[in-house]
Specification:
Number of strands: 16
Number of helices: 14
Order of helices and strands: EHEHHHHHEHEEEHEEHHEEEHEEHEHEEH
Shape: globular
Radius of gyration: 24 Å
Strand content: 15-25%
Helix content: 25-40%
Bound molecules: adenosine-5'-diphosphate, aspartic acid, magnesium ion
Structural class: alpha/beta
Distance between the termini: 38 Å
Largest sheet: 8 strands, mixed
Length: 439
């Protein structure tokens, strides 16, 4: 079984949906995972925000605008009367449902139900379109098998079981399902966080031990630097799971932050491909020995650095454990850490419990925080025997103030923390220093 995931731009207009058909219409058994049409999830977030602030007038206007856009999509997508009618009815049903949320109390549960509408609509539209073209397909409801547990982590065993039941119920060769959406441990509608359709695809691929997971998007693979910020980036044709996992986690938006993990766990290769340029080689992520090189650079914004300075750290054991326990209590992951004899600096990207965390850390010593920091992650092969890479990296960053450095934590990652104001300059400087000669 092949898993193919198409992102928002790949289903972003009737033209794009029409161009998608040749990519999925062959004899191979496959599950096609679809995102919402681009812009839809953002629009749904805005509707939910208006409803949170009890502005139902604004929400209704936003719902009407989105509905009008979808009515046009239906007109442009279908040519046969019966399908035009089915499409119109589909849109009416989903938007009547959306409007029902403007009448009653609004909580996080309603918000999640609203956010799910984008993927429910896009998959139904593509399913109908395939039917109009005479291509049989089966619509698999992701809400029947995608599960997260009480810690909001995907439950791979439950997903595998549920998926096998669904596949048995509906025999076929071409399955379509929704990315992003799932049910939580209470059975409520939930999601895998923004960009989560990639995660759906890798979870399905891992659950079924499939031969390959393909992530189809709007760029020809994982580039060696962030193409939104740096010019002249280029695709990396092959990389290891570890490298891809680090890049995704540290900000390479082409992949959801944790989506590489299920594929890595079950050793299912992941291929990144471009819908606008299907013949391009893209990137193959697989189990392969790391190559002797600097592979790529990514950057993660919204980081808070916390520095704890304490005389008690001097010659004390158990100090770091007590510090980490504070973060554990507030379920706040730590990304980077550096220590000296009298101080420790670490970073978090979830500031939700920052005030409580600071209050508890102040029991150990003085605490200083810096918001708006960026982790720049340089991924490659940095084993202990390699020489010269650190020098290359820091030569490139010679003019940039660096707040923290992490080297040696893993063999394939060097991270530096800079103020977000210096991110663009740092990414460009690293591009010139690390990749220019290889061009
Ligand atoms: P989709 O809607 O298909 O999921 P995304 O917008 O989530 O697509 O991801 C693709 C985008 O990721 C690209 O258009 C590109 O701007 C951005 N991106 C950021 N870093 C990288 C990188 N290192 N390589 C490729 N694309 C990247
Ligand atoms: N539609 C969701 C989002 O925009 C999920 C995804 O596209 O991957 O975040
Ligand atoms: Mg995405």
């Amino acid at each position: 079984m092949l898993i193919l995931k198409f992102g928002g731009t790949s289903v972003g207009s009737p033209e794009r949906i029409k161009k998608l058909v040749p990519l999925i219409d062959d004899a191979r058994d496959k599950i096609v995972v679809l995102s919402a049409m681009s812009g839809t999830t953002n629009a749904l977030v805005e509707i939910a925000t208006a409803l949170y602030s009890r502005d139902s007038k604004k929400a209704n206007a936003q719902i009407a605008a989105l509905e009008a856009a979808y009515k046009q999509v239906v007109k442009d997508l279908f040519s046969k009367d019966a399908f035009l009618k089915m499409g119109e009815q589909l849109i009416r049903n989903h938007f009547d449902h959306l409007r029902s949320f403007t009448l009653d109390m609004f909580t996080a549960n309603e918000e999640k139900a609203i956010l799910a509408q984008g993927e429910l609509i896009s998959t139904a539209l593509v399913h109908y379109y395939l039917e109009e073209k005479g291509i049989p397909s089966v619509l698999l409801p992701a809400l029947n098998f995608m599960r997260i547990d009480e810690n909001e982590e995907p439950d791979l065993d439950a997903i595998e079981k549920g998926l096998r039941v669904e596949l048995k119920k509906h025999p076929g060769h071409l399955f379509i399902t929704q990315g992003y959406i799932c049910r939580n441990s209470f059975g409520e509608i939930d999601n895998l966080k923004r960009g989560g359709s990639d995660y759906t695809a890798t979870l399905i691929g891992a659950a079924l031990h499939s031969q390959e997971i393909q992530i189809w998007t709007d760029i020809d693979g994982m580039h060696n630097n962030d193409p939104r910020i740096v010019e002249n980036t280029r695709p990396v044709t092959q990389m290891s799971f570890d490298e891809a996992a680090e890049l995704a986690y540290f900000g390479a938006k082409i992949l959801h932050p944790t989506c590489v993990l299920p594929a890595q766990k079950r050793k299912v290769p992941v291929r990144l491909l471009n819908t606008m340029q299907p013949e391009a080689k893209g990137t193959l992520i697989s189990e392969q020995p790391p190559q002797d090189r600097i592979t790529a650079i990514a950057a993660k914004d919204g980081i808070t650095a916390i520095n704890i300075r304490s005389g008690r750290m001097l010659l004390a054991y158990g100090f770091l454990r007590s510090v980490f326990e504070v973060f554990e209590r507030y379920r706040t992951p730590i990304d980077m850490i550096t220590t000296s004899e009298v101080a420790v600096s670490l970073t978090i990207d979830q500031p939700k419990h920052l005030p409580e965390i600071i209050r508890e850390l102040e029991m150990f010593g003085s605490v200083q925080t810096d918001r708006d920091q960026t982790i720049i992650c340089i991924v490659g092969s940095f084993s202990g025997e390699k020489k010269g890479y650190a020098r290359k990296i820091f030569d490139a960053l010679a003019t940039i103030p660096i707040r923290m450095i992490s080297y040696g934590g893993s063999e394939n990652n060097v991270s530096v923390l800079v103020d977000t104001r210096f991110k663009k300059e740092a990414l460009n400087a690293l591009n010139d220093g690390l990749f220019a000669e290889a061009l």
